[in-house]
Inverse folding.
């Protein structure tokens, strides 16, 4: 297990499974959230237009395809996974957010979806962000049986999607057929 404090009142309510440089967060140190990423790195790149930095500083190092927390732990899970498919990433975007590889991106994202829903509490909220520059959203949604509740397109070219899902309540009668 990770180092989450599960005592009453000390519980982290939100899990960001691919936090990267925490670009979507207003407070990059929000105490309600647990920030997870598979690396801790600092990048500085100098361009003719100026210097850009990326500080990947998660609370915990971990893999979003194998989250080390019990089932039904978090009220909200956020996933902004790598969305660029490359074998030898060198650009700032891949340094900030990571990358997927051609041979296994579907399996990685499939496992990631399953893990996010596993650690999400029943009726909990799952927020998913995807930029479809390389892979259309339709192909990504085929990797999970869960259906989004609603979403929003954003960005200059409207190719970044924000989707909201709700985890179903446990159904203790799954697999049973009603008597007629």
């Amino acid at each position: 297990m990770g180092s989450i404090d599960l005592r009453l009142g000390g519980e982290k309510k939100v899990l960001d499974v691919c936090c990267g440089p925490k670009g979507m967060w207003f407070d990059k140190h929000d105490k309600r959230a647990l920030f997870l990423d598979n690396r801790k790195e600092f990048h500085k790149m100098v361009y003719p237009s100026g210097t850009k930095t990326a500080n990947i500083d998660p609370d915990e190092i971990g893999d979003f395809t194998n989250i080390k927390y019990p089932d039904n732990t978090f009220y909200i899970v956020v996933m902004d996974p790598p969305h660029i498919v490359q074998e030898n990433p060198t650009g700032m975007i891949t340094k900030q957010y990571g990358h997927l590889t051609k041979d296994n991106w579907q399996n990685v994202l499939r496992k990631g979806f399953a893990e996010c829903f596993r650690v999400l509490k029943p009726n909990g909220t799952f927020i998913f962000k995807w930029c479809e520059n390389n892979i259309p959203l339709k192909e990504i949604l085929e990797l999970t049986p869960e259906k989004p509740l609603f979403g929003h397109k954003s960005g200059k070219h409207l190719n970044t999607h924000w989707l909201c899902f709700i985890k179903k309540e446990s159904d203790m009668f799954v697999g049973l057929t009603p008597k007629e």
In short: Residues 171-180 have pLDDT under 50 and may be disordered. The chain has one domain: 14-166. The first strand starts at residue 14 and ends at 16. The beta strands are 14-16, 33-37, 41-47, 50-56, 60-61, 74-79, 120-131, 150-154, 160-166.
